[in-house]
Every structure is written in C-alpha cells, then in structure tokens.
Amino acid sequence: MVPSRFFFAATLLLVSSLVIVSAIDYSQGSHPDINKSTARAKEKPLPIGVEGHILCKSGTSSPAVPIQGAVARITCLAVDESGYETAPFSFLSGETDENGYFFATLTPSDKLQLRQCKAFLKKSPLEYCQVPTDVNRGIGGALLTSYRLLNQKKIRLYWVGPFYYTSQSDGY
C-alpha cells in the first residue's frame, strides 16, 4: 500500500513539473524567432530595427574608417498563418552616415511570423574599398538574436557588426 501511494505522489509531482516547465516562455530577448507570440491574446508584432556600422579596413596597421553611403541587406525567413515557410525576403538599410552608421526597419505582417533574420554587407561606394569581409559575419550573415526593447518607440532594436570592407590586395 505504501509503495503505491509513493508512486502516485511521484507521478503527480512529475506531471506538475512538466506542466510548469512547458508553460515558461523562453522567447524574451535572445531567441532567434523575431516575433514569437506569447500565450496572451494575439498582439500585433512590434516593428524591428537593425543598426550597425560599416567600415573600411585597408592594410593591417591602418585604422578602420567609416564608409559614408554604404548599405546593408537584411534577409528574413518567415512562416505564414498556415504554418508553411515562405520564400526568404530582403530589405535594405538606408545609406550609412559619415560615421558609417546604418539603420533599417521592418514592420512584420500580422499574417507572417518571422523565424530568422540575418544582416549582410550589400554595397560600398568606395572604389578602393569594395571587397566585403566576413568579419562579424558580414558575408555569411549576422543572425539577429539579441535585441533591446525600446518601449517609448515601440520597437525591437537589434545590433550587428561592425562590418568591414577592404581592398582586394589586403586579404583582411
């Protein structure tokens, strides 16, 4: 009789633990699903912002300098409301300012759930510094994983880079 009560209590404890663990939301802040919904009523997904710097590094001893007029590309995978993966889509940042800073925004659709977004180098206006490097995944794509929530602006802000271009002869 005692072993069956013990077995019943242990089973009840295990089931309770599984229910509690399955209810925890791990999406806050660092999960690659960009607009994962919570258990609350479906809310409109927040716009996302992506910011970073694009620099030119010529030679091993020279300092990196900002590139004005460079552009980054952000590519995202998404799932539609039926659960089917959509074709990847891309959008471009605005041109970098005199400090090499870029910013791009995307307002997710209510019908699509963003699964994964990556930022890449797109173009450099400098003739002597047009070869992209994979420093900080500028060629392979920097995965957007960690963001800051800007409550006043109602946006999820991601940071990538800095990304670098170089000249062909550098091999940086």
UniProtKB/TrEMBL annotation:
<keyword id="KW-0732">Signal</keyword>
<dbReference type="GO" id="GO:0009723">
    <property type="term" value="P:response to ethylene"/>
</dbReference>
<dbReference type="GO" id="GO:0071944">
    <property type="term" value="C:cell periphery"/>
</dbReference>
<protein>
    <submittedName>
        <fullName>Reversibly glycosylated polypeptide 1</fullName>
    </submittedName>
</protein>
<feature type="signal peptide">
    <location>
        <begin position="1"/>
        <end position="23"/>
    </location>
</feature>
<dbReference type="Pfam" id="PF01190">
    <property type="entry name" value="Pollen_Ole_e_1"/>
</dbReference>
